[in-house]
Amino acid sequence: MDRRPFVHAELMSQPACWRRAVEVAARSQRLLPRDGERVAVVGCGTSWFMAQAYASLRESEGRGETDAFAASEMPRGRGYDRLVAITRSGTTTEVLTLLQQARERQPTLAITGDPASAVTGAADQTVVLDFADERSVVQTRFATTTLALLRASLGQDLGPAIAQADQAVVAELPVGLLERTQFTFLGSGWTVGLANEAALKLREACSAWAESYPAMEYRHGPVSITDARSAVWFLSDPPASLPEEVAATGALVLTPTGDPMAELVKAQRLAVALAAARGLDPDRPRNLSRSVILPSRSGR
Description:
By secondary structure, the chain is an alpha/beta fold. It folds into 2 domains: 6-153, 3-Layer(aba) Sandwich (Rossmann fold); 171-277, Glucose-6-phosphate isomerase like protein, domain 1 (Rossmann fold, 3-Layer(aba) Sandwich), CATH 3.40.50.10490. It is 38% helix and 15% strand. It has 10 helices and 9 strands. The chain has a 5-stranded parallel β-sheet with strand order 2-1-3-4-5, with helices on both faces. It has a 4-stranded parallel β-sheet with strand order 7-6-8-9. The radius of gyration is 19 Å and the shape is globular. The termini are far apart.
């Protein structure tokens, strides 16, 4: 019997899920943000970090002003042409509340893994990625499949990223990485969101000391914790001279070898491997549940 955690099989399935996401993007183009629209993208936790990545990509490509918010922090009075909510479970309280409040002001779209969840009634339109839904509390494939869908909707060719992910799910982790005890992930542009997500994966799955920053911000304080116990992982091409500065601290420095989403897959594998080494169950991280559902304020 295979006793490996659910998350192991789920993260291994990501290349296949991304291929299906490209097909869904082609079928769902009329539901997704149109060029020129002013768009807000929201989520909680991992979904918020995918929102950050997409917002940066969309705006940098000149497709329209795009802001990303944690669902609980979106400015309620700000106007948008469309609100996109990312929610794996479709039951997260903050997302449902925001959609109910916002749908009278602008069209709303939910991207979810559960076609029977409450979000399908709370949003005007829904894109369902049920093939990427997960049993594990820790998100891997739903998050990256959502981002694959959104990248494909921008016209990006995901063929190279998928091929690199095929390799990332089986490649050996870098020598010495599992022996490190402090991890920092650095990104720039849209990969800041991926760096945030990589660090969250390590905190969730294996209770690791993991941080994330925009790469150029790393010199402004965070580098002070870096030493021979550290691994510093760039998810996009690093700024000039920064890898050398980090290496001088004794840290293990990792730079990307392919698409940033394939790099994120490697970071997910690191989180699961560290959990195994520490005797932890990455499917059931402490103090976490699959969805945050808050009690009604009215007490009913």
